[in-house]
Specification:
Oligomer: heterodimer
Strand content of chain A: 35-45%
Structural class of chain B: mainly beta
CATH class of chain B: Mainly Beta
Number of strands of chain A: 10
CATH architecture of chain B: Sandwich
Number of strands of chain B: 11
Strand content of chain B: 35-45%
Distance between the termini of chain B: 90 Å
Number of helices of chain B: 2
Distance between the termini of chain A: 80 Å
Shape of chain B: elongated
Order of helices and strands of chain B: HEEHEEEEEEEEE
Strand order of the largest sheet of chain B: 2-3-9-6-7
Shape of chain A: elongated
Radius of gyration of chain A: 32 Å
Helix content of chain B: 10-25%
Largest sheet of chain B: 5 strands, antiparallel
CATH class of chain A: Mainly Beta
Helix content of chain A: 10-25%
Number of domains of chain B: 1
CATH architecture of chain A: Sandwich
Radius of gyration of chain B: 35 Å
Number of helices of chain A: 2
Number of domains of chain A: 1
Chain lengths: ~160, ~170
Amino acid sequence: MKKYALTSLFLCVFVFLGYSQTTATHTVRIIAKPILELQLENPGVTPEFNFNTLADYEGGIEKLQAASLKIRANRNWVLNVKSGSENFITTDNQATSISSSVLTIRKSGTADDFAISSADQAITNGSAGDFDKNKISLDFKANPGFISPDSYSIQLTYTLTAP
Amino acid sequence: MKKSILTTIVLTILGFGAYAQSFSTTAQHNVKITAGSVLDVQMTSTADVTFNFTTVANYTDGIEQTNAAQLKVQSNKPWSLAVEALTANFDADVAANDTEVSASKLEVRKSGGTYAALSTTQGTVATGARGANSVSGNTFYVDYQLKPGFIAADNYSLGVRYTVSQP
């Protein structure tokens, strides 16, 4: 009887120990792919400069917060801007050629003006975050001098890169 | 097991390589300039231009005043400047003075140009190119020459108007 009791106790302990050492593990993986998104807040709006007075032509026209961009990215980013052509395009084919450089741009609240060219220029940069963190307003100034009466337009392309 | 570890390392490197590449996205819009017509002429000084006839030579030969007035034109098209007298004759101060001094006794030219007699009909005195008054030819002087002959002693005055236009 004593022998049976010892044997039973041993088996119970063995079984208990067997349960207490059983484990199962797995790994949870997050695959975070790079994302980068750039949007104009008002894509259908064309910033427009109306030159009507001598003062307009003498000093140019400045438009504060003429455009706003929102960015979301999971990496640090750089915002570039360039024009689609070296000169403004006239609607009436006037002889006046207006260089893209008469248009200057800067991030609102800063003092660094960039004369627009057909080559990309980095105008600002930032860090990872959602749209609410990465909103940018841009100030424009057009100072073309005494250009001939006409309508002129130029396309701007903003390129967001994650170096 | 060894093969499995190697595969994992290769995949990790490939994944890292893709992650390390720079990438970009773009947004576009147009910027428009609408340029209306502007045209302006200013006199540097609107003070009276005075001819003092005090000698016989003055009356015989007349008096010339070079650089009598400076004009500044600004335009975003080629321009033309005309000059005219506001009345056919000078006005005498003394009402009883019946001497008629015709506006044509006063001749005007852009400095360096040729004199033309003034009248109440506009005559072109200068032309120029599009630009601010800093553009060459858009700031200039006019010369006056007055040969009234032996007019009665009095003070005479004449209004002279300059008009710039875009032909």
